[in-house]
Amino acid sequence: MFENLSDRLEKSFKILKGQGMITEINVAETLKDIRRALLDADVNFRIAKKFTDDVKEKALGQQVLTAVKPGQLMVKIVKDELTSLMGGKFEDVNLTGNPTVILMSGLQGSGKTTFSGKLANLLKSKKGRHPLLVAGDVYRPAAIDQLKVLGEQINVPVYTEEGNMDPVKIAKAAIKEAKNKGYDVVIVDTAGRLAVDEQMMNEIAAIKKAVDPEEILFVVDSMTGQDAVNTAKEFNDRLDFDGVVLTKLDGDTRGGAALSIRSVVEKPIKFVGTGEKVDAIDVFHPDRMADRILG
Ligand code: GDP
To answer: Where does the SRP54-type proteins GTP-binding domain start and stop, copy by copy (predicted)?
Structure first.
């Protein structure tokens, strides 16, 4: 992931790493290269500009021009800025409910159902939780079957109501079932559409209102770049979600979504999906991601 961005950033530091005497012109060229690399990674123009402006200010403040190793200092400044662009610190999911209700949102194909299974598996195996998965995508029988298969794989029960087309009622009944049977996390998968539409938004807003979830996660395909950011904004305006899940980071995603989403919607990225298998999930640490980008 982000290979191209990593290569480009590495190259942009070359000028500063290779020369004895550093001039303001060298720094300006490096910043220009960094900005181009960010734009090519599908980072929004304004974010890329602000990023390099901030780096420039820090570079001048920390006297890059007279530093013994200006290249290294610059890499550190860029790393810190990348970390802060992606949210600064790791933010975990809120599991304080009794039971905790986690609502999944996002477009069809973003990876919601797969991620629901991954999260249930993670909470079960790493946090000793007892999750219940809920099939709330009532329009696609295939989605219900997919969740059932996932549930079997990870040995987590899946709540379904054959023939019931009301996801609000299903979600409420599932929570009741969880209380009765002692499940402490209820993960509600919901229907998505290929594009944002009013009916989908109304439906998920109604589920939110009815079940008052501890956590609403917005799941988005990182390969969709700036579209991912725009969709995030639309969902957040409507749902005021709590965290972002970036899926398909194992593909050749350019990185724009990972770098931009946080500053556009001001919500943390909490998890990433790194493959189709049920254990292909990572919690998101901005500093570790910045390390990976800069190699
Ligand atoms: P939903 O419509 O949002 O529920 O999306 P699905 O969970 O059905 O996922 C859509 C497709 O993306 C499926 O083929 C998944 O196997 C695939 N997928 C989901 N997450 C990832 C991921 O992190 N990496 C890769 N490579 N594929 C993924």
So the answer is: 268-281
* 113 labeled binding residue: yes
Single out the residue of 195, 122, 116 nearest to residue 159, CA to CA.
116
**Does 64 have pLDDT greater than 90?**
no
Distance 68 CA to ligand 1 centre (A): 48
Element (H, E) at 243: strand 243-247
Task: State the closest ligand 1 atom to the C-alpha of 137, by its place in the atom list counted from 1.
Answer: 4
DSSP annotation string for 123-140: HHHHH---EEEEEE-TT-
Ligand 1 atom nearest to 247, measured from its CA: 23
In whole angstroms, what is the distance from residue 7 CA to residue 128 CA?
40
- DSSP label at residue 162: T
Q: Which residue has the higher pLDDT, 151 or 196?
A: 151
CA of 49 relative to ligand 1 center, distance in Å: 33
ipTM over 0.90: yes
**Distance in angstroms (rounded) separating the CA atoms of residues 259 and 41:** 9
CA 273 to ligand 1 center in whole angstroms: 9
109 C-beta closer than 6 A to ligand 1:
yes
Give the closest residue to 82 by CA, choosing from 221, 274, 256, 272.
256
Q: How would you class 142 by CB atoms within 10 Å of its CB: exposed for 0-12, middle for 13-18, buried for 19 or more?
A: exposed
